[in-house]
Fold this sequence. Notes:
Layout: E1 39-45, E2 51-57, H1 69-94, E3 98-106, H2 110-115, E4 122-129, E5 135-139, H3 141-151, H4 167-186, E6 195-202, E7 217-226, E8 229-238, H5 239-261, E9 281-284, H6 292-296, E10 314-318, E11 321-331, E12 334-342
Antiparallel strand pairs: 1-2, 3-7, 4-5, 4-6, 5-8, 7-8, 9-10, 10-11, 11-12
Helix pairs in contact: 1-4, 3-4
Amino acid sequence: MSSTESPSAPVESAEPPQAEAPVAPASVTAPVEPTGPSVERATVYSSAGARADVAVSAHDFRRPGRLTETDLRRLRERHDEFARHLAARISLFLRMEFSLKVTSLATPSYRGLIDTFSEPTHVCLFRMEPLAGVGLLEIPPRLALTLIDRLLGGPGKPATTLRALTEIEIALLEDVARLVTDEWCGHWTLPTPLKSVIFGNERSGRFLRTAPGDTMMLALTLETALGEGVETLRLAVPYPMIEPAVKAVLPVRSRESARESRPAPSASSWRPVYEQVSVPLHAEWDAFTLSLRDLSELQIGDVLELPAGIVDRTRVALNAQTKFIATAGLEGTRVVVKLTQRLDSGDPSHAHP
């Protein structure tokens, strides 16, 4: 008897086959992206041959010198005063209480600053003539609509619905923006007064290209309070643009702080070794002047007439430095002087001829 065998069909396993994980060669290491500042350890050798491990961090030479924490603190103190003056001006303009408080003063890169702008937003572009560069004033939409509501006679309540501003509303908002930029220009001290000029407005910071991405910015963040609404106002300029004004401000503060931090001079104390130091002392008169001819004709026995009262103007010099005015006189058989006045270092008569 013959039997017919059916072709064998593939047998499926009850469990699905597991894919083998790819095995990387032992000599390959996957790169790891740094998550913090670029800081590495390096071995250096001193001139004496000593070996030491030090931390090395990357530095971008395209950016100007950063402001120190002390410089930023001094600038923030000045901007606290700027915020008070600006709040008073805007309050008068709106006829409503408007408060400002500095929340931060930092130096981010231009790219990092733009990435923090809200979307959508309102950005005013301005110049500070005669300085070269473009500044940015970011006004969040909610604050912009609240200001416009007040300018149109409304109560200045926070807007509940955000929308794009119309051309008329942008023109009204420029009046407030001009108050901010004018007050900020007046905040700096330069030989030539700064003048702010607003020349443009943008609804988004995403496509702004007013400076290279790695440009260091001086960014001021202000917390605003108008009625029941609290928002954030931000003003930023390229640091190379404002650097002349910053340098004009910081040296003055540095000198003031140096005087304040200078230790008081310690009181001088007497030391026994001083007792053996000899100091030449002279008592002299400034009587009159003679010509060279008269001086050459002087003979022994000649009588020189001295001005009246000259004995009361006797100068006493210590180590060739005139220190006292005295009165000369006789005490028994000795010539003596009585000190009557101490001369300060700034006194013209202090100099010894």
